[in-house]
UniProtKB/TrEMBL annotation:
Residues 16-488 form the Amine oxidase domain. This is Amine oxidase. InterPro entries: Amino_oxidase, FAD/NAD-bd_sf, Flavin_amine_oxidase, Flavin_monoamine_oxidase. Keywords: FAD, Flavoprotein, Oxidoreductase. It comes from Umbra pygmaea (Eastern mudminnow). Its EC number is 1.4.3.-. Gene3D superfamilies: 3.90.660.10, FAD/NAD(P)-binding domain (3.50.50.60).
Length: 501
């Protein structure tokens, strides 16, 4: 059985959410699927490149977060896309997850012992796990993650040593890469309990095709021509009178091309919605949705790749981590920076956590930076960023560090159709309510104005619409399937398909 042959679905955005929605609908028998992608390539925040030769560099997503219950991991396994050999390079595990091969340096050039490092990192990991496992006390309910961590750490003897404090600051700076936040003082401690970390670790890296191979697998199941790149959507007109218009929704692209649809799945990033949603929808979005778009946080994580002609770090070194005397995640420094009239820009580089070695690239290091400092870095020339990184590496390690042969940095904050990296819950926000509101289709069943209108005209997918797996690729992938399933259910009497989530 198939859905009615005339049903037209437009999917906006060809990231993993949009592609999984389209692929699921095609498999269920929908015949008219059009994917409109603003950029010149599919993938969105999956961006696999080859700037340093044959082997891949991921400018966006890198890891599959967990294996058990992860449908994206299963897909990668089924399609034989997982890495076969073991690699010891640091980019096999998350930034901030230290290995015994990480070298930690203070500003003075002193290298810390692994014993010093492990004690603080282990405590930090225990404290953050309490937040993620919903084990916080009621007194933490209104606190930021940074505030909660400071309070708990101050009770540990490790807080009495200067090195302990510097390491703790580094741990917080590093955790900002997981939360995509400018600072942990801008993330809710208690709301993190809604995020679900899947079992199975992060060591399941993708093979030589990288994340793009997963996107390609989804694309393979949609007919040629279903994807149109370089088609930025300007506006979505829904609830059109079907006596006048043949379809209830009309999608207008920049340049004037328009597409009629019965259903539109909007999978654009939250960062894009923050800037454009007010002008994009006609009728305007309901307040529940505009509040969700405003209240949820969407921060920047950037990578800085440095390729050297020759490797200058020891063979057993998996990462060079930088401990400032007083770094940006130090409570006092953070508070001062709130009223320093932008003086933090002069020391933006202090937000760089360190430089990790990179799988398959023996001469490449990857630096990590987040938040407003990342946004500032994006405005600088790559040559200048490279010079700053080399200056840091030289002054912290005392090693003879050559000039890099190539510098490549991501610019997720200034990417016009993304405007950030991923979603986080700020303090005081009811994240479950906001993710749910963001995901709700239009027209809302409770809205009397549209009681006679066709259901499910505008649907919303994308990582920010997932309550438990926001920020992740598998979250994005599952939301695409979720929205496709809504449409499949709508036409259920004519389709005999149930999709696995
Ligand atoms: C640096 C970085 C590292 C990351 N690391 C990981 C990781 O290791 N593991 C992990 O699980 N996740 C990671 N993520 C997050 C992950 O990449 C995202 O959660 C996921 O890819 C989001 O998919 P999506 O389909 O929701 O959105 P996107 O991939 O952003 O897709 C949305 C698409 O909509 C398009 N679009 C926007 N506006 C318009 C418009 N007006 N018209 C048409 N198209 C439009 C965009 O161009 C984009 O292609 C990382 C992200 C970044 C940036």
């Amino acid at each position: 059985m198939s859905p009615p042959s005339g049903v037209k679905v437009v999917v906006i955005g060809a990231g993993l959410a949009g592609l999984s929605a389209a692929s699921t609908l095609v498999k269920a028998g929908f015949q008219h699927i059009q994917i409109l992608e603003a950029m010149g390539r599919p993938g969105g925040r999956v961006h696999t490149t080859r700037p340093f030769g044959q082997d891949i560099i991921e400018l966006g997503a890198n890891w599959i977060h967990g294996q058990e219950g992860n449908p994206l991991f299963l897909l990668a396994q089924e399609q034989d896309l997982l890495l076969k050999e073991n690699s010891s390079a640091k980019t096999m595990c998350l930034p901030g997850s230290i290995t015994s091969k990480d070298y930690f340096f203070e500003e003075s050039g002193r290298q810390l012992t692994m014993d010093e490092v492990e004690k603080v990192c282990t405590l930090f990991s225990k404290l953050t796990s309490k937040a993620f496992d919903s084990e916080l006390q009621p007194k933490h309910s209104t606190q930021s993650l940074g505030g909660y961590l400071d309070e708990e750490f101050s009770q540990s003897p490790l807080a009495l040593s200067v090195a302990g404090q510097r390491l703790f600051e580094w741990c917080k700076r590093s955790e900002c890469t997981d939360e995509a936040s400018s600072s942990l003082y801008e993330v809710s401690a208690v709301q993190l309990g809604h995020y679900v970390a899947l079992e199975g670790g992060f060591f399941n890296s993708l093979g030589p095709g990288g994340y793009q191979a997963l996107a390609d697998t989804l694309l393979d199941s949609v007919p040629p021509g279903a994807l149109l790149c370089d088609r930025p959507v300007d506006s979505i007109h829904w609830a059109l009178d079907e006596e006048i218009h043949t379809h209830p929704v009309s999608v207008q692209c920049q340049g004037g091309q328009s597409f009629k649809a019965d259903h539109v799945i909007v999978s654009v990033p939250l960062g894009f919605l923050k800037v454009k949603a007010a002008a994009m929808f006609e009728p305007a979005l309901p307040t529940s949705k505009t509040s969700a778009i405003r209240n949820l946080g969407f921060g920047i994580v950037d990578k800085i790749y440095l390729r050297f002609e020759n490797r200058f770090w020891p063979d057993d070194c998996a990462g060079i981590q930088l401990l400032w005397d007083a770094g940006p995640e130090d409570e006092k420094v953070y508070k001062q920076s709130q009223s320093d009239n932008g003086a933090w820009r002069d020391t933006w580089y202090k937000k760089i956590c360190g430089f990790d070695t990179v799988a398959r690239h023996p001469n490449v290091l990857c630096g990590w930076i987040t938040g407003r400092e990342a946004e500032h870095m994006e405005s600088l020339d790559e040559k200048i960023v490279g010079e700053v990184c080399v200056r840091l590496l030289r002054s912290f390690t005392g090693w003879s560090v050559p000039e890099p042969a190539q510098v490549l940095m991501s610019k997720w904050g200034s990417e016009p159709f993304v405007r950030g990296s991923y979603t986080y819950p700020p303090p005081g926000v009811d994240a479950v309510r906001e993710h749910t509101a963001l995901a709700a289709p239009l027209p809302q069943p409770c809205d009397a104005r549209y009681s006679q209108a066709k259901p499910l005209q505008v649907l919303f997918a994308g990582e920010a619409t997932h309550i438990n797996f926001y920020t992740t690729t598998h979250g994005a992938y599952m939301t695409g399937i979720r929205e496709a399933q809504r449409l499949i259910n709508l036409y259920a009497d004519r389709i005999n398909v149930k999709v696995k989530m």
